[in-house]
Write a structure and sequence with these properties.
By secondary structure, the protein is mainly beta. Helices cover 13% and strands 57% of the residues. The chain is built from one helix and eight strands, in the order αββββββββ. A hairpin with a 2-residue loop joins strand 4 and strand 5.
Length: 181
């Protein structure tokens, strides 16, 4: 009988130990409450700072032939979240069958980032013919600019010029490249 008590005790310890061993293998996985905040946009392009650019232009008016030309520009941008403000100075040469002239302009611009790499903006400023009549214009327009990589953007812009002297308005379209530094 003694032997059967020992056997019964050993069997019960074995069965109880197997259950405890099975329970000790339970794996727990920590669960986070809530979700991590995802940024709305993380711009790969930094619009802040200075840039220099080149552009080609086509201009038309009611009193003049269509003129074509090229220009250079220097500007600065400041970005606030998805808003951008900036200023620019530009010099351009325009030519046609009847006119050759140089033109300077100072403009300000304000815009919004449609995507981190695409800017839509409005511009306004003052332009001055540097040769010939020396006429001056008030400028209003807008454009889009796309960041190709960390240092280069391409832009398309429309500008309407209103002569201070009372001549008819002029329409100018430009395509350009800007190098940011």
């Amino acid at each position: 009988m003694r032997m059967s008590k020992r056997l019964l005790l050993a069997a019960s310890l074995l069965i109880g130990g197997a259950g405890a061993a099975q329970a000790s293998d339970l794996i727990t996985v920590p669960v986070q409450s809530g979700s991590a905040a995802m940024p709305v946009s993380d711009s790969a392009f930094d619009w802040d700072g200075f840039y220099a650019g080149v552009y080609g232009a086509v201009q038309s008016s009611a009193s003049n032939d269509t003129t074509v030309g090229a220009g250079v520009e220097l500007g600065v941008n400041a970005q606030f979240d998805f808003f951008l403000v900036g200023g620019e100075v530009a010099l351009q040469g325009l030519t046609s069958d009847t006119i050759d002239t140089a033109y300077g302009k100072v403009t300000g611009r304000g815009g919004v980032l449609i995507t981190p790499d695409l800017l839509a903006y409005a511009s306004a400023g003052y332009g001055l013919e540097l040769g010939g009549s020396g006429g001056s214009d008030l400028l209003a327009g807008g454009g889009v600019e796309f960041a190709v990589n960390d240092a280069l953007s391409l832009n398309a812009e429309y500008t309407r010029s209103f002569s201070v002297e009372g001549d008819g308005p002029k329409d100018q379209f430009t395509l350009g490249a800007r190098f940011h530094f």
